[in-house]
Design brief:
- The structure holds two protein chains of two kinds.
- Chain A is of the alpha+beta class.
- Chain A folds into three domains: 2-47, Uridine Diphospho-n-acetylenolpyruvylglucosamine Reductase, domain 2, CATH 3.30.43.10; 52-190, Uridine Diphospho-n-acetylenolpyruvylglucosamine Reductase, domain 3 (2-Layer Sandwich); 198-304, 2-Layer Sandwich (Enolase-like, domain 1), CATH 3.30.390.
- Chain A is built from eleven helices and 14 strands.
- A five-stranded antiparallel beta sheet of chain A has the order 4-5-10-6-7. A four-stranded antiparallel beta sheet of chain A has the order 11-12-13-14, sandwiched between helices. Chain A has a three-stranded parallel beta sheet with strand order 1-3-2, covered by helices on one side.
- In chain A, strand 6 and strand 7 form a beta hairpin.
- Chain A starts with a strand and ends with a helix.
- Mean pLDDT of chain A is 91; it is low at 91-103.
- Chain B has one domain (13-160): Alpha-D-Glucose-1,6-Bisphosphate, Chain A, domain 4 (2-Layer Sandwich).
- Chain B has helices at 25-32, 35-41, 136-160, and strands spanning 13-21, 45-52, 55-64, 67-81, 85-94, 99-111, 117-129.
- In chain B, strands 1-7-6-5-4-3-2 form a seven-stranded antiparallel beta sheet, covered by helices on one side.
- Chain B is globular and about 45 Å long.
- Mean pLDDT of chain B is 88; it is low at 1-7.
- Classes of the chains: A alpha+beta, B alpha+beta.
- At the A-B interface, helix 7 of A face helix 3 of B.
């Protein structure tokens, strides 16, 4: 195996070119474990840590641009992830001083709320947003949170840089839409609708485990009526589960419990979760409406206050 | 992000399914007697050789995201009830003994009217070695998925073959 540490994105893209078994190494929190287990055997490993631009967080044209090498710990403390964007930072467990009310504020908050709940501090200190996305594990927290936040991904390849909605990025279990020779360089998170709140609710066996089911939501209300809703479910199939029909049910309603359960049932019917040691497929489908009601119900109460 | 716990061992993976093929049962039976025809319907199957009466060798490639494997497998027909059913025993390994798989499978045909046949298959697969460390939940989904692709390819191939 060849190990390279390029200092720019074009150099990294050149290192990936023409080799289907070349992989990027970001924080290594999953890739190294998979290599230790002989599951993945890259021909070339392209370490990204020396590429300065991938570590940056900048604000451009209403988008918060988060470099692929930004760690979960940094996301969890990123104050610009407010509003709908906060869906990304939520990482559970002790030690984090993000209060429930703090993490619900604003649409971007869904991102922050998810990042806060990923694994445990050691993993959050090394693991990166780019690594988590490219691993494309539907059980992970960030994929669903970023779909809820309406994020875009920035992808570099031999033909230059392209951006695409994150929704289409997750193709199947451990499979993203990245073509051979391409790499993820950044995630772009829009400000989201005015006054929205974002939250990531994770149900797991123990703190820091993968979710049995997770719900990422961005919701806004005006005068008791829901003016915006985008709800995404994790650990519910080969990719984050998002249904326009479920959002449409919620939007325009008073977000009362009956509507929340109805939207939850719709998503549960579309879910295709795995059957494993964390929970059976049926159990996960059973949990889904209750978790959705809890997540969106909490958001509703913020507007009542 | 940690690493998923796994379940492997005898019978860890069970897949079963049934599907309708638009051809009478005798034609479907003749089709599944041909290793080349069936091999062409197996996703990732690169090569099939008939090595004896009811004995075959094949090379099959499987992939879940970045996890890739190439298995050399031996298949033996263990039971046969003409026009009704056939059972197979399968053993395979990756080069270098990295993973081993074994499976017992059964294929059953049932006439569904004069022009259609219901094909049912059931397989119990166990995997040991490096791929046995991979999460059993996703492995099952992948196996179901491959089964679905096999069914679709078989239906298509029989439909496209003149009677």
């Amino acid at each position: 195996m060849i190990y390279l540490e390029p200092e720019s994105v074009p150099e990294a893209v050149a290192a990936l070119a023409g080799d289907e078994d070349a992989r990027c190494l970001a924080g290594g929190q999953t890739l190294m474990a998979m290599m230790n287990a002989d599951l993945v055997m890259p021909s070339t490993l392209v370490g990204l840590r020396r590429i300065a631009g991938l570590h940056e967080v900048t604000e451009t044209e209403g988008m918060l641009r988060i470099g692929a090498m930004v760690t979960h710990a940094r996301l969890a403390g990123e104050e610009r992830l407010e509003g709908a964007r906060a869906v990304v930072t939520g990482s559970g467990g002790g030690g984090d001083d993000v209060s429930i009310s703090g993490r619900l504020e604003g649409a971007r908050a869904v991102v922050r709320d998810a990042a806060r709940q990923i694994a445990h501090p050691a993993v959050r200190n090394r693991g990166t947003i780019g690594g988590a996305l490219c691993h494309a594990d539907p059980q992970a927290d960030l994929p669903g949170a970023l779909v809820a936040a309406g994020a875009h991904v920035e992808i570099a390849g031999a033909d230059g840089v392209r951006t695409a909605p994150v929704d289409g990025f997750f193709v199947d279990y451990l499979e993203s839409s990245l073509e051979p020779g391409e790499m993820l360089t950044a995630v772009l998170i829009p400000e989201g609708p005015q006054g929205a709140v974002g939250a990531h609710l994770k149900f797991s066996r123990t703190d820091g485990d993968y979710a049995i089911v997770s719900v990422s939501s961005v919701v806004a209300m005006q005068d008791g009526v829901c003016s915006y809703a985008r709800v995404v479910v994790g650990s519910a199939g080969p990719a984050p589960l998002h249904l326009d029909a479920a959002d449409a049910l919620l939007t325009g309603s008073g977000l009362d419990d009956a509507v929340l359960l109805q939207a939850g049932d719709l998503l549960a019917a579309a879910a295709d979760p795995v059957d494993d040691v964390r929970g059976s497929s049926d159990y996960r489908r059973l949990l889904l409406p209750a978790l959705l009601a809890r997540a969106v119900g909490a958001a509703r109460e913020r507007f009542d206050g | 992000m940690g690493f998923p716990p796994t379940v492997s061992g005898p019978g860890a993976l069970k897949i079963e399914n049934s599907f309708l093929v638009p051809a009478p049962r005798d034609r479907v039976w003749r089709f599944i007697q041909s290793a080349e025809e069936v091999g062409a319907c197996v996703p990732g199957c690169e090569h099939v050789d008939v090595v004896g009466e009811g004995k075959f060798k094949a090379r099959v490639r499987v992939k879940v995201g970045p996890i890739k494997a190439l298995f050399n497998i031996d298949i033996e027909r263990t039971e046969e009830e003409p026009m009704e059913s056939a059972s197979y025993s399968t053993r395979g390994e990756e080069g270098g003994r990295a993973s081993r798989l074994s499976a017992r499978s059964r294929l059953t045909l049932r006439a569904a009217g004069e022009k259609e046949t219901e094909v049912a298959y059931a397989s119990e697969i166990s995997i040991a070695g490096r791929l046995g460390r991979f999460g059993a939940g996703v492995m099952k989904k992948k196996a179901d998925d491959l089964g679905g692709q096999f069914a679709e390819a078989l239906r298509q191939r029989i439909a496209d073959t003149p009677a």
